[in-house]
Amino acid sequence: MGDDGVATAFGLIIVGAGPAGMAAAIAAAGRGIDTLLLDEQDQAGGQYYRALPTGLNGSPRRDPHHHAGDALRARLSAGPAKVALQRKVWHIRLDAAPGGPATFTLQTLGANGNEIWTARALIIASGTTERVIPFAGWTTPGVMGLASASILLKAHQMLPGRRTVVAGSGPLLALVAAGIIAGGGTVAAVVDLAGTTDWLRALPGLATRPALLRQGMSWLLRLKRAGVPIFTRHTVVNAGGRDGVESVDIQPVDARRRIQGQTAPRTLSADSLVIGHGLTPAGELLRASGVTFIPRPDAGGWVPDCDDYMRTSTPGLFAAGDCAGVAGAETALLRGRLAGLAASALLAGLPDDQLAALTATTRRELRQAARFSGASAALMAMPAGLADSVAPEVVVCRCEGVTLAQIDSALDAGASELNQLKIWSGCAMGTCQGRFCAEMLEHRLRRRALAPQVAGPLRARPPARPLSVSALLGEDDGAPLILPEKRP
Ligand SMILES: Cc1cc2nc3c(=O)[nH]c(=O)nc-3n(C[C@H](O)[C@H](O)[C@H](O)COP(=O)(O)OP(=O)(O)OC[C@H]3O[C@@H](n4cnc5c(N)ncnc54)[C@H](O)[C@@H]3O)c2cc1C
């Protein structure tokens, strides 16, 4: 944004510099589109290709992800796309002139204060949010998300604790446990919600990517060599300790992931617990932009309804990567390239038959990747039986301290729709705006409502990221603030 407070205009803006956003920027800018890539992090890479922080002391461990990420970052910076980092996108507005092209206006907050950007096409590549089904003691210091622990290990080269229980579901379990051992830590146990039969069912799909399957096997081998006990079809029921984790109780689950309460819990000694039950698409910016969502439990939950070219129901607005359905980094890269090509075709006025030819290879590669991503996403699906086992006194909404019993009281009082349940219970009203608790709220509504139909995901309101009024106003630079429109 210039000194006069006027918005900076681009042909295409991409939000999120993970594999999807980087691939989209490289593809679109490579076809001559004036492209801006925005991200709130200080380096491009997203979760999978997260870069090591600059100025890290010693000789940090670099894994293949770091090398692949560096190669992608080098391609991005060698190309013509403009990259603006440390910018939180907190508001998006769409102005569609009748019969004319749409304009997207984005507001970001970052190192340069509040900035305004406009574009004729927009790609949202905002990634995923980690899912944790609440349990007793999950807010105790020393408990952290499985995906968050992967950031700690990968980017900061830090261990989550001295003796860690690694629990939850999906391929991140073995990745994180093996990373802890490689970093010199101790894994007290791996507690997997899935059983051997679930893994065997996923095997044919996982075997379609032999290199990734081999990588997974090498993590398991490292756990075996270190003598780590692995409890399959088990879950954590309590993290004990006053000022930090001191013990972790686990119990078996059945095939539907319901806790087998008749079996006495087993107590493991640990000073930290790393736990995650899969990933859900981070759709808040897309929800705020009014696109149509559809339920896809096999892809993490609510996903934007996209066509074969990642076009959403809003003309000019595309979704790419895991925010369009959790499918992993390889698919994210391909979806990003597809969205970048499709956005460039839109801006260049190419007809659909030329778009089909331009994207034929990428769409074929996406179909080939689908079996692997489907199999790993199935291992991370919402464990409904576990969600049913949450005790009434357990806090579901950490921001506002709302328990399951308080959600049930709002249901007893007659709340019958998701947004109403949010307002009546206070769950999802805090700084995370439901990113971590809305799924549990929705699950409870489905279980209790007379008509177990939920019309759509929670309505999203700006700001899309928590921000303080003082940070927003900063020093008065005269820039106009675009206030959100009133919504019913
Ligand atoms: C915490 C976490 C850790 C993970 N670690 C691993 C791992 O170690 N290995 C693995 O295989 N998979 C991991 N995953 C899964 C992984 O995210 C994906 O499969 C892959 O990175 C998806 O790529 P993407 O480009 O769609 O999104 P991401 O890589 O998630 O990139 C999305 C980007 O969007 C940016 N963004 C989002 N919202 C905004 C906003 N409002 N303003 C500005 N920027 C925004 C984020 O900062 C991020 O850089 C992890 C997921 C999470 C949530």
Briefly summarize what is shown.
The chain is α/β, with parallel strands linked by helices.
Description of the molecule:
The chain has 488 residues and is α/β, with parallel strands linked by helices. It folds into three domains: 8-129 and 280-377, FAD/NAD(P)-binding domain; 132-277, FAD/NAD(P)-binding domain; 390-448, Arc Repressor Mutant, subunit A. It contains 14 helices and 21 strands. The longest helix is centred in the C-terminal third of the chain and has 28 residues, at 352-379. It is globular, with a radius of gyration of 23 Å. The two termini are 31 Å apart. The chain binds flavin-adenine dinucleotide. The site of flavin-adenine dinucleotide has 37 residues, from helix 1, strand 4, strand 7, helix 3 and helix 8.
Q: Descriptors for this entry?
A:
alpha/beta; five-stranded parallel sheet; globular; seven-stranded mixed sheet; 21 strands; 488 residues; 14 helices; Arc Repressor Mutant, subunit A; 3 domains; FAD/NAD(P)-binding domain; binds flavin-adenine dinucleotide
Bound molecules: flavin-adenine dinucleotide
Record field, number of beta strands: 21
- Indicate the structural class: alpha/beta
Question: What is the CA-based Rg, rounded?
Answer: 23 Å
CATH hierarchy: architecture of the largest domain: 3-Layer(bba) Sandwich
Please identify which CATH superfamily of the largest domain we are dealing with.
FAD/NAD(P)-binding domain
Outline? globular
Measured between the Cα atoms of the first and last residue, the distance is: 31 Å
Mean pLDDT: 91
CATH class of the largest domain: Alpha Beta
Total of domains: 3
> Which range best describes the helical content: under 10%, 10-25%, 25-40%, 40-55%, 55-70% or over 70%?
25-40%
SS summary, helix count: 14
Q: Tell me the fraction of residues in β-strands, as a range.
A: 15-25%
Classify the fold: give the CATH topology of the largest domain. FAD/NAD(P)-binding domain
